[in-house]
Write a structure and sequence with these properties.
It contains three helices and no strands. With 77 residues, it is mainly α. Helix 2 (17-39) runs antiparallel to helix 3.
Protein backbone atom coordinates (compact mmCIF):
# COMPACT_ATOMS: atom_id res chain seq x y z
CA UNK A 1 0.00 0.00 0.00
CA UNK A 2 2.84 2.42 0.83
CA UNK A 3 4.48 1.75 -2.52
CA UNK A 4 1.20 2.45 -4.28
CA UNK A 5 0.91 5.84 -2.59
CA UNK A 6 4.52 6.70 -3.44
CA UNK A 7 3.98 5.76 -7.08
CA UNK A 8 0.98 8.08 -7.38
CA UNK A 9 2.71 10.83 -5.46
CA UNK A 10 5.69 10.97 -7.87
CA UNK A 11 3.90 10.10 -11.10
CA UNK A 12 4.29 13.04 -13.49
CA UNK A 13 4.59 11.21 -16.84
CA UNK A 14 7.55 13.40 -17.82
CA UNK A 15 5.60 16.63 -17.88
CA UNK A 16 8.66 18.85 -17.63
CA UNK A 17 10.13 21.49 -19.93
CA UNK A 18 13.12 19.21 -20.59
CA UNK A 19 10.92 16.29 -21.65
CA UNK A 20 8.61 18.41 -23.81
CA UNK A 21 11.54 20.08 -25.57
CA UNK A 22 13.34 16.79 -26.22
CA UNK A 23 10.21 15.12 -27.57
CA UNK A 24 9.38 18.10 -29.80
CA UNK A 25 12.88 18.12 -31.30
CA UNK A 26 12.79 14.34 -31.87
CA UNK A 27 9.34 14.54 -33.50
CA UNK A 28 10.58 17.25 -35.88
CA UNK A 29 13.67 15.12 -36.54
CA UNK A 30 11.57 12.11 -37.53
CA UNK A 31 9.46 14.29 -39.82
CA UNK A 32 12.57 15.72 -41.51
CA UNK A 33 14.19 12.29 -41.84
CA UNK A 34 11.04 10.71 -43.24
CA UNK A 35 10.57 13.54 -45.70
CA UNK A 36 14.20 13.10 -46.76
CA UNK A 37 13.64 9.41 -47.50
CA UNK A 38 10.40 10.05 -49.41
CA UNK A 39 11.98 12.81 -51.51
CA UNK A 40 15.23 10.88 -52.01
CA UNK A 41 17.23 13.64 -50.30
CA UNK A 42 19.62 11.66 -48.15
CA UNK A 43 21.28 14.78 -46.76
CA UNK A 44 17.88 15.62 -45.26
CA UNK A 45 17.72 12.10 -43.79
CA UNK A 46 21.07 12.59 -42.07
CA UNK A 47 19.99 16.00 -40.81
CA UNK A 48 17.02 14.23 -39.23
CA UNK A 49 19.34 11.68 -37.62
CA UNK A 50 21.47 14.52 -36.26
CA UNK A 51 18.38 16.23 -34.86
CA UNK A 52 17.42 13.04 -32.98
CA UNK A 53 20.82 13.08 -31.29
CA UNK A 54 20.49 16.81 -30.64
CA UNK A 55 17.07 16.27 -29.03
CA UNK A 56 18.54 13.76 -26.59
CA UNK A 57 21.41 16.06 -25.71
CA UNK A 58 19.16 19.11 -25.25
CA UNK A 59 16.80 17.12 -23.03
CA UNK A 60 19.65 15.87 -20.85
CA UNK A 61 21.26 19.33 -20.56
CA UNK A 62 17.92 20.92 -19.64
CA UNK A 63 17.32 18.18 -17.08
CA UNK A 64 20.75 18.77 -15.56
CA UNK A 65 19.96 22.52 -15.47
CA UNK A 66 16.99 21.81 -13.22
CA UNK A 67 14.19 21.78 -15.79
CA UNK A 68 13.58 18.04 -15.55
CA UNK A 69 12.24 15.73 -12.87
CA UNK A 70 13.67 16.42 -9.42
CA UNK A 71 15.83 13.52 -8.29
CA UNK A 72 14.71 11.76 -5.12
CA UNK A 73 17.79 11.60 -2.90
CA UNK A 74 16.52 8.46 -1.12
CA UNK A 75 16.41 6.37 -4.31
CA UNK A 76 19.58 4.79 -5.70
CA UNK A 77 18.76 4.69 -9.43
Amino acid sequence: MAQELDAHEHDSHGQTPAAWTAVTIVMIAFFVGTLGVVLGQYLMLWIGVGLVVLGGIVGKVMSMAGLGMPRDKSSHR
